[in-house]
Amino acid sequence: MRFEGSTNYVATPDLKLAVNAAIALERPLLIKGEPGTGKTMLAEEVAAALGLPLMQWHIKSTTKAQQGLYEYDAVSRLRDSQLGGVDGGRVHDISNYIVKGVLWQAFEADEQTIILIDEIDKADIEFPNDLLRELDRMEFYVYETRQLIKARRRPLVFITSNNEKELPDAFLRRCFFHYIKFPDKETMQSIVDVHFPGLKQSLLKEALQVFFELRDVPGLKKKPSTSELLDWLKLLLAEDIPPEALRSQDRKVSVPPLHGALLKNEQDVHLFERLVFMARNNR
Ligand SMILES: Nc1ncnc2c1ncn2[C@@H]1O[C@H](COP(=O)(O)OP(=O)(O)OP(=O)(O)O)[C@@H](O)[C@H]1O
Ligand SMILES: [Mg+2]
Q: Which among 61, 72, 163, 212 is least buried, having the fewest CB atoms inside 10 angstroms?
């Protein structure tokens, strides 16, 4: 089983290598990279390309590792026992109140699955440690029903992180790691081609120029990334903005139209406006 890329997703050779290395090693693939560089989409595309079902687990600050395994719904059980009308046998059998989590569902699936643990760095620092054994051995124990749940087919695991928190060493040791480098111009051009196949080359060229110049402005709090470029292009197309409008006549920098798609806070907009103003005055 190998991942060779997909028509919807531009995977660089080093990214494909990393995916295939993780598959061969049977270890989770830990993906980092700037927001909007295709980390989440990678898991979706690998699943689609390999024809495997994708089980997604989106992590929040309140997510606990246990929720990925199962939860015991004591509240429902209490309610059923008090309400009456519910079959007493049902209330007595605790397994009726065990709610399966994403990992359990993946473990019991007949075919091999792909598990996406998205944005693992959102959870508290115990979260990755609490999953070490489950991801290593692909099994866990359900104390309430005294069952051992073991994966029928070892799932492929994708884990994404935006680096908001460090991950523990013991966890890192078990993963294969890949950092999605920010796409160079050529790769970005291919990504845009995937999303806007018929885009006018003149507009694409100007837009990419403006975009990469903007990313180069020193001191930006939030550099625009792939998804912002795609949003911006969509707007440019919708508003029918010609390539010439992306630059002033003297081909010096100007504040690009619809820059709200690219710059996401007022400090960055001010910084950029100041820079444009200085560039103009230096002529
Ligand atoms: N290599 C790529 N090929 C095609 N489209 C891409 C690629 N990289 C990014 N995109 C586009 O950018 C969008 C954002 O990608 P995605 O949501 O996977 O980013 P992310 O890295 O998970 O971001 P975040 O860290 O904010 O969750 C995608 O919906 C897709 O349209
Ligand atoms: Mg994501």
A: 61
